[in-house]
Amino acid sequence: MPQDNRINTQSEVDIKLNEIITTALLDTGARHTVISEKLAQKLKTPIDKTKTRTLRTAAIGGRMNTIGTIHHLKAIIEKEQYPIKINNVSVIKELDKQLIIERTEIINNGLIIDLKRNKIMT
């Protein structure tokens, strides 16, 4: 049987945002941090609807239109109780994952991910 040599670039973590616990996808291959409109509304965080744009994404092989931006989010990665700050989160009408955090935010927050074990190293 052929061996799969693809490199995993993603890790899922439980994350707390404004007392709401959800699963976030830490995606080292992503170029944008995005949140679903549904989760953004649950968080009751202001969405700047003047800051919309079109994002290119390899994941769906096309483009996504944003409906706004959340400028700052504070979160805690649950298992490790590791606080992080996320800036300029694009809000998407519909999204398979509730929150996708891109590589720059991963680096800026000092997160080291063991992708083999799907674990955050702090």
How would you describe what is shown here?
This is 9341_t:CDS:1. Keywords: Hydrolase. It holds the Pfam family gag-asp_proteas. It is a single chain. This protein has helices spanning 37-43, 103-108, and strands spanning 10-17, 20-27, 34-36, 54-57, 62-77, 82-92, 99-102, 112-114, 119-121. The protein has two helices and nine strands, in the order E-E-E-H-E-E-E-E-H-E-E. It has 122 residues and is mostly beta strands. Strands 1-2-7-3-6-5 form a six-stranded mixed barrel. It has a two-stranded antiparallel ribbon with strand order 8-9. Helices cover 11% and strands 49% of the residues. The radius of gyration is 15 Å and the shape is globular. A hairpin with a 2-residue loop joins strand 1 (10-17) and strand 2.
